[in-house]
Specification:
445 residues; 2 domains; binds 2-acetamido-2-deoxy-beta-D-glucopyranose; signal
């Protein structure tokens, strides 16, 4: 993530200067916006039931909170789902519909929020006029442009829910599947066909909801027609990932992971509260107010282990339980055809865990195309892998025959073939079209 995060602000500033930045309109933060509060009795509704909806301006999706994307329509839906312990909660999904949309094609895009702050939910940070708080996810609409230009609609669930449960797998997975249910029952105002084919996408932090959704799908939402899913930079276990992160400049990312889990497990939160050093209390609490970029900036040199008076807090039963419960690969083998991409020397999400997950799922009968890159940055592969992932999604929507079973391919910049190269070219071109405010849609001029 580092290279992209370092590059992006400069790149975005450069583009801002080039295109001229419009005055910002103010958008209410989720913590201040009544729309996020469910009506009384919502607990009795079915998972995925629509509780509220609203229409946003058609150009409210923005890259870096300023570059408005010109779409046909944008909707938000508050729907019922469950947290990681099964308690009913309400969360929001935002649906982006391009011009000339194919009502039968929907992508559920799980953003890499990586924060334990409610105000970092993508329903807010993706909007023009939100504060520029998260270079990574606020750049993700650059990828979506390629979906829009194919006429695919995109929904982005706030899969961490109202308690900002970063790292809680069951919350993330259920909110993703229930978000799809909500969008598929929104036809009366969004025109999305209830029988639409659905695919899921998630990279890095977004791989948590996507991976958990693929594993929960057979038991929790078998009725959903999900025809493919892309999982990249896969975060299999919070502990494995935090142990790797703690060796890197990205140390700060450990904080929202811990806070996200503590937001879900009261016994873990109470325990950590009892061992936090008094002089660290303020910094420890401030994490729940920061998005990814702020966390990386302000906690760069901080090691969470120096915050607690108990050196072996990781192995306290309450912490251990939370860490163990949120490891991917403990539920059903996904039946959805998968495209996975990961770097062999990924410095944030350890490859060994992903390889193990891949083998387990393959042994269980999954169909997976696994694209491995021999480099070490967490995000460069996103650019190399995304075109192939896009081609995979295209073939799934086109109902091309599924490649049964598992296969791995290597990918590197030197070996990139002409097919992927042209897909990469078109991905960048589509992003450029979006940045310039040109209509994004299937019947583009
Ligand atoms: C998490 O990692 C730490 C450090 O390696 C280890 O002591 C602990 O047992 C691990 N916990 C779990 C649940 O895997």
């Amino acid at each position: 993530m580092r290279s992209l995060i370092r590059l992006l602000p400069g790149l975005i500033l450069f583009c801002m200067v080039l295109t001229g930045v419009h005055a910002r309109s103010k958008v209410l933060r989720p913590s201040k916006d009544d729309f996020y509060t469910p009506p009384p009795g919502f607990e009795n509704e079915k998972p995925g039931a629509i509780l509220k909806s609203r229409t946003l301006p058609h150009n409210s999706l923005a890259v870096a909170s300023v570059f408005r994307q010109n779409l046909e329509s944008v909707y938000q839906i508050l729907y019922r789902t469950s947290d990681g312990l099964g308690a009913p909660v309400a969360t929001v999904t935002t649906l982006f519909v391009p011009y000339g949309a194919d009502p039968l094609k929907l992508v559920s895009y799980q953003a890499a929020e990586d924060s334990s702050a409610i105000d970092c939910a993508p329903s807010y940070t993706y909007q023009s006029g939100s504060s520029f708080s998260d270079a990574f996810i606020q750049a993700e609409p650059l990828f979506m442009a390629s979906y829009f230009r194919r006429g695919w609609s995109v929904s982005v669930p706030d899969y961490e829910g109202p308690k900002a449960l970063f790292g809680v797998g069951a919350m993330a997975g259920k909110a993703t599947l229930d978000g799809i249910r909500a969008v598929l029952s929104s036809c009366s105002f969004t025109k999305i066909d209830p029988m639409a084919d659905v695919q899921m996408w998630g990279y890095s932090g977004g791989s948590i909801p996507t991976g958990w959704a693929t594993e929960l799908h057979p038991s929790y939402a078998p009725e959903l027609n999900i025809v493919g899913a892309v999982l990249g930079g896969v975060v299999v276990s919070p502990n494995g990932t935090m142990n790797t992160i703690n060796q890197q400049d990205e140390k700060g990312l450990v904080f929202p992971f811990y806070r996200g889990l503590a937001n879900q497990y009261p016994d873990m939160a109470a325990y950590l509260d009892s061992v936090i050093k008094p002089e660290k209390r303020k910094d420890y609490d401030r994490v729940n107010d920061l998005c990814l970029t702020g966390i990386m900036r302000e906690y760069k040199k901080d090691d969470l282990s120096t915050y607690f008076s108990e050196p072996d807090y990781v192995n306290h039963p309450t912490v251990k339980k939370a860490l163990e419960e949120n490891v991917m690969g403990q539920l059903d083998t996904p039946t959805i055809p998968l495209f996975m991409l990961h770097m062999e020397f990924d410095k944030l999400a350890p490859f060994s865990e992903v390889k193990e997950l891949y083998s387990r799922w393959c042994d269980g009968g999954a169909s997976i195309q696994f694209n491995i890159d021999a480099s070490s940055a967490h995000t460069t592969h996103l650019l190399l892998g995304a075109p192939d992932a896009l081609l995979f999604m295209e073939s799934r929507f086109d109902k091309k025959p599924i490649q049964k079973g598992c296969s791995t391919t290597g990918k590197s910049l030197s070996k990139i073939d002409s097919h992927s190269l042209s897909a990469l070219g078109s991905l960048l071109w589509n992003a450029w079209v979006g940045l310039n405010g040109i209509r994004l849609g299937a019947k583009n001029p």
